[in-house]
Amino acid sequence: MHDLRHGTATLALACGSDLRVVQGTLGHGSIVVTSDIYTSVLPEVYHRSAQAIARLVLGKARRTARSLRKAAA
Question: What DSSP designation does 70 have?
């Protein structure tokens, strides 16, 4: 039964579920417990987060550059 819980939580995180949702589903009293157990086995969660941040920052930088070019023209 424990392996099923672990597998379900791992799959949920891999599909992009929020860590708080997984915490509630598993009944962990603290998100720290959930985080300590499951995020260490899912490096792709960190990778997806880094990609999302990069997209946000680069998108903003591109929009700013376009605005500056328009203002200079």
Answer: H
20 contacts 28 by C-beta, under 8 angstroms? no
Within 8 A by CB and 6+ apart from 43, the residues are none
The DSSP result for 1-67, as a single string, is -HHHHHHHHHHHHHTT--HHHHHHHHT-S-HHHHHHHHGGG-HHHHHHHHHHHHHHHHHHHHHHHHH
For residues 24 and 64, give the distance between their C-alpha atoms in angstroms, rounded to a whole number.
40
Neighbours of 61 (CB within 10 A): 10
Overall pTM surpassing 0.85 (yes/no): no
Mean per-residue pLDDT for 64-70?
A: 94
